[in-house]
Specification:
binds fe (ii) ion; mainly alpha; SP0561-like; 2 domains; 231 residues
Length: 231
């Protein structure tokens, strides 16, 4: 199937719902975005036909989804920057305060439960603080440079290192919450919290993938840009 030859970053950013499916399979498309789906599935010992069929079904499904199936490699940089600011930066800023509130409530009310995600509110506060600082640097320094056609290696490397830190925070979040699986008998706040965390994690992983594999790469040189030294 053709989809097996596509890269993880392409699949995660163009098929609505694919990022959640890949996350559930423990396939890290943020770090291994250039790896093909076939290679990733072979590495995990998963059935390629089954996963490809699931993704093909998602691709065919009529989605009322706010992650449009756009090949960002072919779109103007300004359009991608606008999409990242509106769909991800603004959304993270909306999501995190409510999640911190809910986590603190669940930790307070269910502190005697064996499944209580103790320390989750503090982790989310740290994530919120780190993300805010990171997004401000992108908004004030890096994105304006990229919009002007400048690709500064230093600031891009710093942002990519911070993306790795965000992914480490996601790993801690998953281990604190048993991969966001709602325990039997959980109250509505607990359910709402874990549902919101799944959305946050999916959003953050797609956000990082769009930046690492589509925005933080210089446009391919065309023959008219060539200086001639390679010929
Ligand atoms: Fe960003
Ligand atoms: Fe970023």
């Amino acid at each position: 199937m053709e989809i097996l030859n596509r890269s993880l970053s392409d699949i995660a950013t163009t098929i609505p719902g694919a990022s959640a499916l890949l996350r559930q399979l423990d396939i890290n498309f943020c770090n291994q975005g250039m790896v093909s789906l076939q290679q990733a599935l072979e590495h995990k010992g998963l059935d390629p036909e089954e996963v490809a069929a699931g993704l093909a079904e998602l691709e065919m499904t009529e989605h009322h989804h706010d992650d449009p199936a756009i090949d960002w490699g072919k779109e103007p940089r300004m359009k991608l920057i606008g999409h990242i600011l509106e769909r991800y930066h603004a959304r993270h800023r909306e999501q995190l305060p409510e999640l911190i509130f809910l986590a603190a409530k669940v930790e307070r009310v269910h502190s005697d439960s064996a499944n209580c995600p103790s320390g989750l509110a503090d982790l989310l506060r740290d994530m919120s603080h780190e993300l805010e600082s990171h997004m401000m640097k992108e908004e004030q320094i890096l994105f304006p440079m990229l919009a002007g056609g400048i690709y500064p290696n230093g600031p891009i490397n710093v942002m990519q290192d911070e993306h790795l830190e965000h992914l480490e925070a996601i790993n801690r979040l998953c281990s604190l919450t048993n991969n966001m699986k709602v325990p039997a008998g959980a109250c509505n706040s607990w359910r709402s919290l874990y549902l919101g965390l799944q959305t946050l994690v999916d959003d953050l992983m797609r956000h990082i993938t769009l930046e690492n594999y589509f925005l933080f790469v210089p446009p391919k040189a065309t023959s008219s840009d060539c200086c001639g030294s390679c010929q």
